[in-house]
Every structure is written in structure tokens, then in C-alpha cells.
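lol ok so funny story. i was supposed to be doing the assay writeup but got distracted and ended up predicting the structure for this chain instead. priorities right. anyway since i did it might as well share w the group, maybe its usefull for someone
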Amino acid sequence: MNDAEIKMNDLKDLLDMEVERVNRPEFIADDPVQFPRRFSDVRDIEIVAFLASIIAWGNRKMICRDAERLLHIMGDQPYEYVRDGAFEQLDPDLNIHRTFFARNLKHLLRALREIYRSHSSLDAFAAAMKVGASEAPAWELVGHINRIMADGNDGEADSRALPQNLSTTALKRINMALRWLVRDDGIVDMGVWSCIPKSKLFVPLDVHVGNTARELGLIHRKANDRKTVDELMVPLRDFRPDDPAIYDYALFGIGINSKKIK
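and the output, tada:
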């Protein structure tokens, strides 16, 4: 075994140890994953997973505060709220989270309402679109939702609702939602979707995960974009081909605790 292989084995051991430390039920209380976990109907779960992930940028306490407020706006009945079109009554200037307003929420929920008119769930819609057959399921799924969103909003795209630059975006927030919905170890993630194999999930790449991955030598590109998340997934898929996104917990845990990495 050469030095590079020894280093990668040591790195895998470190990441596996961090996964065991972070991927625990105690993680849920301070994370946006707590919100979809409150529901039992897959339609409620997937709606809240998408909404909580879409506003998941910035301070975690603020994210959770605003997700709580959004659930209150929806009367804690997300699917009924979407199906009945109650969101149309919202003041478009109502602030939901930072630069995400009710006008952006309306654009997205119109698309979801249209999807639910033809499919029993978003999981069923993704299956019908053969999203799981793609090598990049999150990007494939967002492309289909963006098309429906534009059709339902007079051709208007909305990058506040979902990213439009699919050739370059790392799709951090949607990859996080898919981790919640697809991974099925029963600890933090919920595993309620069957349309995507967990082997095809991507780690949600944000600034902290990117910085940690660079310090560890897992990636070398400076930008946190689609090419970089592709680069990151190469070693992670080598470590756990069946479940590479589990290492999100390790990279998050190391980064959040500001450990000195040697």
C-alpha cells in the first residue's frame, strides 16, 4: 500500500468516526430537518423538506425561526395549503426569510400544486420523470420543476425559489432536501422517497463543507459550484459507494467544531 492509499484510508477512518459522532437523534433539534420530521403524510413531509431547505442559508437559529413561522402561515397543513391554493392570498411583499418573499413562495407553490394535480406525490412525479436514472438527480428534478414553475407563472423563472443556472450551481439546498427524503438509516434522515437510490445522492456543498473538504485534501477547486461537488463526490463514492452522502455529517461536524485538521 502506497502513501496516498494510507492517507486515504486514514481520512476515511476520520470521516467514519465523525459520521458516528454527528449522525445521531440529538442532531435533529437544532437543524431544519426537524420540520419535515413532524409529519407522517409523505406529501406534507416532502413539501416541508423542500421549503425548509430552500430557506436554509444563513444563521441556523434564524432558519429554524423562519421555517417555524412558515409552517404557522400554512396552518401546519402543508399539503392542504398547497392543494387549496391558500398561498394566493399572501401579500407578495411578505418577507419569508432574508431575500425570499411571499412572491417567490407563490411561484414555487403554484408549481407544486400543478404537480399534485397529476401525481400522488413529488416522489411519484420524480419517478415519472425518471429522475433516479440520472447521474445528477437533484439537477434533473429541479429542471423539471423549473419548467412547470415557468409554465404556471406566465413564463417567469424565479431564481429565489429554485436555482436556474443548473450547469453551474452546486444545488446545496435541494441536495440537502434529497438527503433527508432518500437516506434511510432511520436516525436523522427520513427515507420516505423511493424514486432515487441513495448511492446517487450528492453532499450539500456550502462554504463550510467546502472549506473543510479543502483542508482535508478532498477537493482542490476554490469555487463552491457544480464542478466542485462533482470533484468531492469522487472520493466519497469510493469510501461508501452505496451511501456517499452520509459524509455530509462528517464534513459538517468537523467544520462546525473548527477542528484543526492535519
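The CA atoms of residues 83 and 113 lie 6 Å apart. The longest strand covers residues 95-97.
back to the writeup now i swear
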